[in-house]
Structures are given as C-alpha cells and as structure tokens.
Amino acid sequence: MKISIIMPTYQDAESIGQSIESVMSQTYDDWEMIIVNDGSTDETPEVVAAYLGRPGGEKIHYYEQENADQLNAIKNGLRYATGDYIYILHSDDLFAEKETLSRFVAYEREHPGYDAYMGNQILIDGEGKEIRLDRVMPYRNSKSRAALLYLWLGRNLYIDFAFFRRKAYYGSIKRSYLDSNMPYWLDLTQKSKCLNVKSMDFPMFRYRVFEGNYINNEIGKLNVINGELRTLTNLMKYFSIPFYRFQYVAFRAANKLGLASCFTPIYQNREEKHKEKVVRFAIEKRFQKTYHENLFLSQLISFYHLYESNQDWETVEIPPALPIYLGSDMRAFHKALLSGNLDPFYMLFLEKMGKGIHLFYCKNKDVKKLEMICEFFCIRPFITIQGMPS
C-alpha cells in the first residue's frame, strides 16, 4: 500500500528539513513525498535539494509555483500523487514517530473500508519542544455531528489532517476541502452527509504552535472565516438551532471541560429562520466590530439582513475573462480587493449582494460561473439563478 505525502511549503526553510527527515526516517518505506513550494523567497529550494541526493531522495518530488496559498499548493501536488492514500504534512510539522506510517498501515488492515483515518496530535512549540498530547474528539458519523458543526459557527470539530483514501480524496474531499475550504468530512453536495471516517487512538503528527501560525494574522483569519462562513451558510439550509447563543456557550464550556464528544445539540431539521443573527454572531466572534472595515463581511451581513424583504431581481452579465474565485483563492481575492485591483464586476456584485437581492438572471452559458461566484460569497444556498438564451 503506497502513501503519498503532499507537503505544501511557504517560507519554511528553517523547519522543512526536520519535516522531510521525519518522513525519510519512517520504518515503512512504501511512500512518496511531493513538495510544492508556494512561491517562497527564502532558502527552501536549497534545503530541499540537499535531501534529493540522499538514500531515499528519489522518492521526493519537488515542484514550484507562484504564491497561490496552501490549498492551491496541495491541489497542485495532488496532480502528481500516485499513492493509495493521501496525507498532507505541512512543512513546519512532523510525523509523531518513526513508526507512524507502519502503525497506520497495520490499523488500516485491521479496519478496512473507511474514507479517512484520523489520529491525535502532539502540540510542540517553535523550538520543537513537546507541549502536550491533544486528543481529537472521536468521530461520529451522524446528522447530529453536522448540526454540532453548525452550532460551532462552521468551525471544524476535528482536524484537517488524516490518511485519506485516494478515491474519497479525489471526489468529495477535494470539492469540500481543497476547492471550498470547508471540513473534509462533510459532503454538502449530499445534504450534509458525513463521510465514513475512523478515529485512531494514537498520535499521527507533531503540530507546531507559534505566533506565525496561519490563523494568527489578519489575512489568515479572513481565509479561515471565509471557509467557516461557507460551511455555516450551507448548513443553515438544513438545520435550525433554538436558543443558538445559549447552546453555543454550553458547548464551548463542555469543550473546555473535555466533554465535547458527549454534547448533542437540540436542533430541528429545517431551514434556519434567523440567518442574519447567526452570520453576524459568527463574524463578530472572529473580528468583533471591526468587520465593518471589510467589504465582503459587511455586505454578507447586509445580504442576510435584507434577504427576505427584498423581492427585486437583477440581470448579471459576466465578462468572458472574469477570474472565478474558489474558497481556496480567498487570499488572492482579498489582495485584489485591498490593492484596488478587484475586477469592477465583483465590486458591483457585492453592492447588489448587500441589498439582499437573491434572484439573478444570466446567460445559460454563465449559470455555472454565477453559481460558483455565489458559493464563494457564501450566499449560494439562498440564491435563485435563472438562465436565459444568449
């Protein structure tokens, strides 16, 4: 059984060597490592090159791309993966021990047939010193877990790291996680279907925690909340949670006490009525009142505030060369927005979105593009699109 390890990297010349060594030292040897340099300007190429000539270096494949963010780097690496299983190892993290791959292979043989296998993580500091073992909440394949994800503001209940079966990864996981930046274990194309995931009670990897982590900067927070809001608004179509804020506080307390796995929210299988309150709550938890400074976030709240009262419709003309953003492209979108280089189409669309308009007409050939645009802006479940002859 071959395992493809995809390693996206950006400006990690100081740590990538340790990450590579944690792979090359594995006792299980049927693996390949695909490193995708996401536009680093440090000494990453030189560090990687030093390993290519070592024994086992022939199993390392190195590629470079212009800076496009980590999800796009993973998608790029996925094109070259030939393994039966896919594992994503970031260039500042390490496998937990030399036997990690061997332990997974043995476990998979005893428990075959799952879409993914998820273990625990060991938290380490910037120097690699162990902080503690972090046990991931045991996975449960049930509708109540999707409802709990909705209660948790679309924030992933688990971790993004697992050994993924190739067929599942190239299917729903690629769509949910890599394209849309949502939790891999939920397939929202199948009405909030949970994937078949197996929890393994041993540590898979060492996760480095430091101030430079993705979530600890403004751009990183915007990228993360874009995925969380996309998850949240998709789930609003299927779930309604009474006393939302009260139940949120209750789950947060249970989570801090290590009782998260015992918590089941009270929910109803119907569309959420209080959409704006839920979306605003989620955004304010990340950005407090500063969300007004961000055009996307402020217009999203405005959309859900005016959504039910606005019965207007708009005809949309999509320029042929318009760049279509996916959830994995949030950094590029935000960079264009801040620099004043965002295509005028998007500025106009955000204006219409802020008015609560939810019925759009466009040419038949542009329907798919408009669906993707609405998905990116976290309004797709509540938008009606009518195609017209060209």
TrEMBL record:
Gene3D superfamilies: Spore Coat Polysaccharide Biosynthesis Protein SpsA, Chain A (3.90.550.10). Keywords: Transferase. GO terms for molecular function: hexosyltransferase activity. It holds the Pfam family Glycos_transf_2. Coiled coil: none annotated. Residues 4-169 form the Glycosyltransferase 2-like domain. It comes from the Bacteria. InterPro entries: Glyco_trans_2-like (IPR001173), Nucleotide-diphossugar_trans (IPR029044). PANTHER family: GLYCOSYLTRANSFERASE (PTHR22916), UDP-GLCNAC:BETAGAL BETA-1,3-N-ACETYLGLUCOSAMINYLTRANSFERASE-LIKE PROTEIN 1 (PTHR22916:SF3). This is Glycosyltransferase. It comes from [Clostridium] leptum.
